[in-house]
Amino acid sequence: MFDAVLCTFDSLNHVLDPDALADVFAGVRRALRPGGRFVFDVNTTAAYTREWDKSSALVEPDAALIIRGGYDQARRLGHTDLTLFWSDGGWHRRDLQVWQRPWDPGETTAALERAGLERITVHDAAAIGMHGDIATGRLFVVAFKP
């Protein structure tokens, strides 16, 4: 049993189904001691609609990484497409796609309550001092095991 569980860098956005999110929260609840605290962050719809349609690249002498994002509003699914090139004497390519889902405050709170967590507080990242694009649409959430 633990006094606290911390989950950061929008890891929970990779859970794509509301029932699965509640299951994750129930697992956290089982791991906590009574009175234990669960602290995490999630990206909301605002993050995906404002920030996910961007691209970037990293280029090194023996490797290159191209990152392209996108968001399907109708399906509420964000994706990040990664293309990696690297050389170990010959050039290679690997393509990956990572899926994410926004979790808005009401959905997050409902899943926490379904899992039996309480005293839930939701904090907007920008309002508590986080700056830049990474703060757009990001929430920090605290919940307790009864």
Describe the structure.
The mean pLDDT is about 95. The longest helix is centred in the first third of the chain and has 14 residues, at about 20-30. A hairpin with a 2-residue loop joins strand 3 and strand 4. The chain contains three helices and eight strands. The chain folds into two domains: about 1-45 and about 105-145, 3-Layer(aba) Sandwich (Rossmann fold); about 50-100, N-terminal domain of TfIIb (Single Sheet). Helix 1 packs across helix 3. With about 150 residues, it is an alpha+beta fold.
What's the gist of this structure?
The protein has 146 residues and is an alpha+beta fold.
Portion of residues within helices: 10-25%
Q: What would the principal axes of the Cα set say about the shape?
A: elongated
Number of strands: 8
* Total helical elements: 3
Distance between the termini: 14 Å
Let me know the largest β-sheet. 4 strands, mixed
Return the string of H and E elements.
EHEHEEEEHEE
CATH superfamily of the largest domain: Vaccinia Virus protein VP39
Please describe the structure with a list of short key phrases separated by commas or semicolons.
N-terminal domain of TfIIb; alpha+beta; 2 domains; four-stranded mixed β-sheet; elongated; 146 residues; 3 helices; Rossmann fold; single chain; 8 strands
